[in-house]
Specification:
- The chain contains eight helices and six strands.
- By secondary structure, it is α/β, with parallel strands linked by helices.
- It has one domain: 3-Layer(aba) Sandwich (Rossmann fold), CATH 3.40.50.
- Helix 2 packs across helix 8, helix 3 crosses helix 4 and helix 5 packs parallel to helix 6.
- The protein starts with a helix and ends in a 6-residue tail after the last helix.
Length: about 220
């Protein structure tokens, strides 16, 4: 009986130690071509494999998942929740992320529906102290038109929404402005990647910021 109680305590404390459930929500709409998609998946794997990020994930016993989203009715949970309890867990998740098959292609950009789908996934990780949607994309909503409502629903659910805006080179920041005005929650933030070549490093710095670790 003592052994069973000890096992239950150890299991329970491991689960309750989850600081953050972080859902990585990736744009795979028609503006993302095959090369861009590879840059996103490889960039995601590279960012997760960074030693500082990996250390933060394990120390916080972070739960990670990946969603792909595109047009109306096109959302998929591509990698289900996994707890980062060891370096091996991070390595495995990064390897899986690098090889995720593309769920959708050639469609519109239904940001709000993507957010609603992401919000629903957190029912599986109710024990994590913080719940964060990390959405990345290169376009404003042009289908579904539920972004403002989806943001309100996420706020009511106690979620944080942060964003990576993928911008074309040049002086304008239309996607960054869109995410800042319509998508992120109070206290959330937007970072800007100047093209998908900049995605991996931008995501690395963003993950460190989200996990409360020094950025370097």
């Amino acid at each position: 009986m003592l052994r069973a109680a000890l096992l239950l305590w150890l299991t329970g404390s491991s689960v309750l130690a989850c600081e953050t459930a972080l859902l990585l929500s990736v744009d795979v709409s028609g503006s993302i071509d095959a090369g861009d998609y590879r840059l996103q998946t490889e960039g995601l794997a590279a960012a997760l494999s960074d030693p500082g990020v990996a250390e933060a994930l394990v120390s916080g016993q972070v739960a990670l998942a990946v969603v792909q989203w595109s047009g109306t009715g096109e959302q998929a949970l591509s990698l289900p929740w996994m707890r980062m309890l060891s370096d091996a867990d991070v390595t495995r998740f990064a390897a899986l992320a690098a090889n995720i098959p593309r769920a959708f292609s050639g469609s519109d950009t239904a940001v709000g529906q993507g957010l609603r789908f992401a919000t629903a996934q957190f029912a599986a990780v109710p024990d994590c102290a913080r719940r964060v949607i990390d959405v990345s994309g290169d376009g404003q909503e042009n289908a579904g038109f539920t972004d403002a409502q989806a943001r309100t629903e996420a706020i009511r659910a106690g979620l944080i929404i942060n964003a990576i805006a993928i911008e074309e080179p040049g002086p304008a920041f239309p996607i960054t402005t869109y995410y800042r005005r319509w998508i992120i929650t109070p206290g959330g933030f937007v970072v800007t990647a100047r093209g998908l070549q900049d995605y991996a490093e931008t995501l690395r710095l963003k993950l460190l910021r989200e996990l409360g670790k020094p950025i370097g």
